[in-house]
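In response to the reviewer comment on reproducibility (Comment 2.3), we provide here a single inverse folding case reported in full, input and output, so that an independent group could reproduce the run without further information from us. The structure tokens appear first.
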């Protein structure tokens, strides 16, 4: 039996790993299985894990008559840092493979968590601006619209940096971001510039939606964590409501000033326009990954997968099937491809999946719904379509990984009843003696 101190050290290491994974958007199933793999690699068996949106709990009781060792760790919001996620994931894989000891793993995780971001803040802001430019390109924006989208995205990033320092809740942070983007569009519309400001607003909505954890909530619901899924869904709904409130406030200011923002409908795209749209999607996804501190080696695969997903969306959307089904088809493609190729770039699939679906987020539907409501018309159907698209994206990504699983059997992925295809965590099959 492991010594008591060693047990607590193993549990503490597993909880620290779980905190990084959960705060990075990993599903509760992946977090639970990874923590159990860590404790088992440290020689501590008979451990049970419980994952909620705010707490991680590990319980070790080797025999029925022995007192249980229980450790709980509160999960706090952390800025998304894919470099930290990848380094923790690599540490866990090394620990499970026996390449590092428990003590070395503890030191590595402590260093990763304590070390600041490896990119300068101004570079991250430029990354967000380039993401806004890419989204504007997918919407058919002119060079002037792309410039305004760049400015709006940088301004939104400024609010997301400033407000958390004053402990402002996430709802108001998203509302402020939506209001700033809309105010920039209103200002542009009040000038004589030949610009469609509605695309600027839509860019801001997509940028803010990228941080909403609808995919994690859907994954938790599908993998048997209803409590965590409910909490994540409520959090996502509140964040989205903040975006809607901020944009609506900006549209109201425009109406008061006599400046209206018209809706728009992208027309049929020719071959050249399709090329621009696909390039815009690749740019937006790559810039999002860069702004989220993803390492350089992952940016190539992110851009390629995002371009592929956008191409699938355009192909399906050009038929009579509809945009929601097109988004679902694109998400299935992204999920399957990421499951197959992410390992070749030494990154978890999660690091590729999330940026790749950013250009597919339903910012346009949300803007249309709000614009119709501002005109006194019925925009509920547009908002419902946005919700359906978001759910289709999340469920499609997970389905794509399940469909790709038979093609990846030779990689010896860890599959259990608790978790299906893994987006993070050690990919090792248990041996015959493992329990």
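Designed residues, in position order:
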């Amino acid at each position: 039996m492991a010594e008591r101190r060693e047990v607590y050290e193993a549990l503490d290491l597993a909880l620290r790993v779980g905190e990084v994974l959960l705060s990075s958007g990993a599903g509760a199933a992946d977090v639970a299985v990874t923590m159990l793999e860590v404790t088992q690699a440290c020689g501590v068996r008979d451990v049970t894990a419980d994952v909620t949106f705010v707490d991680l709990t590990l319980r070790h009781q080797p025999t029925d008559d022995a007192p249980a060792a229980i450790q709980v760790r509160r999960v706090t919001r952390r800025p998304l840092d894919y470099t930290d996620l990848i380094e923790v994931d690599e540490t866990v894989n090394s620990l499970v493979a026996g390449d590092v000891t428990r003590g070395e793993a503890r030191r590595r995780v402590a260093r990763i968590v304590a070390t600041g971001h490896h990119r300068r803040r101004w570079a991250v802001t430029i990354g967000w601006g380039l993401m806004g430019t890419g989204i504007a390109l997918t919407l058919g924006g002119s060079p002037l619209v792309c410039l305004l989208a760049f400015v709006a995205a940088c301004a939104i990033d400024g609010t997301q940096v400033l407000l958390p320092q004053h402990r402002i809740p996430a709802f108001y942070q998203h509302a402020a971001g939506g209001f700033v983007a809309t105010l920039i569009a209103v200002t542009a519309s009040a000038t004589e510039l030949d610009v469609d400001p509605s695309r600027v607003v839509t860019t801001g909505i997509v940028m803010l939606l990228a941080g909403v954890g609808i995919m994690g909530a859907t994954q938790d619901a599908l993998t048997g964590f209803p409590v965590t899924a409910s909490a994540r869904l409520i959090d996502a709904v509140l964040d989205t409501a903040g975006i809607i409130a901020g944009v609506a406030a900006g549209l109201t200011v425009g109406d008061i000033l006599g400046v209206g923002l018209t809706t728009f409908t992208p027309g049929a795209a020719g071959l050249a326009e399709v090329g621009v749209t696909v390039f815009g999607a690749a740019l937006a996804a790559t810039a999002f990954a860069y702004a989220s501190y993803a390492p350089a080696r992952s940016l190539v695969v992110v851009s390629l997968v995002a371009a592929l997903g956008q191409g699938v969306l355009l192909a399906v959307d050009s038929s009579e099937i509809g945009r929601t089904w097109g988004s679902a088809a694109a998400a299935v493609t992204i999920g399957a491809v990421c499951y197959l190729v992410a390992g070749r770039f030494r990154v978890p699939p999660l690091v590729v999946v999330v940026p790749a679906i950013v250009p597919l987020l339903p910012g346009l539907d949300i803007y249309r719904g709000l614009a119709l409501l501002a005109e006194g018309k019925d925009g509920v159907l547009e908002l419902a379509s946005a919700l359906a698209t978001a759910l289709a994206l999340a469920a499609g990504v997970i389905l794509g990984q399940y469909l790709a699983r038979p093609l990846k059997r030779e990689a010896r992925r860890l599959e259990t009843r608790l978790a299906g295809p893994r987006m993070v965590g050690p990919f090792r099959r248990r041996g015959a003696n493992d329990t």
